[in-house]
Design a protein that fits this description.
6 strands; six-stranded mixed sheet; globular
Length: 115
């Protein structure tokens, strides 16, 4: 996992606002987060148990937008297999337009999709 992190960190670090790189690595190593490395992009997701149910939260992302959008359906399928009822994203406003095609809708300041 560390080798993959080193390769993709250049896409993820600009998205870090609420954690440090060390905290992200610790969460990845402890299994509290999952790294999704692409060829030209990467995601970091978290499975969370909330009052709304179990959800897969797309925490961090960056890189090539086309490749990122191609990865979304596979990540959603994985989330369903992990028992997630929803996928969520918070971030830049551009995500709303891009993720609309996958059924994400605005809710409580984030984008939500039923899985």
């Amino acid at each position: 996992m560390i080798e993959q992190w080193v390769r993709v960190r250049k896409w993820i670090l600009p998205a870090l606002v609420d954690a440090t790189e060390a905290e992200v690595i610790a969460d990845l190593m402890a299994g509290r987060a999952t790294l999704w490395p692409g060829e030209r992009c990467a995601f970091v997701t978290q499975l969370l148990n909330t009052d709304q149910g179990r959800l897969m939260h797309i925490w961090l992302a960056g890189g090539d937008g086309r490749e990122m959008m191609a990865m979304v359906p596979g990540m959603a399928a994985w989330g369903r297999m992990q028992g997630a009822q929803f996928a969520t994203v918070n971030g830049r406003k551009g995500w709303k337009r891009r993720l609309n095609q996958f059924g994400f809708v605005p809710r409580d300041g984030e984008l939500w999709k039923a899985l």
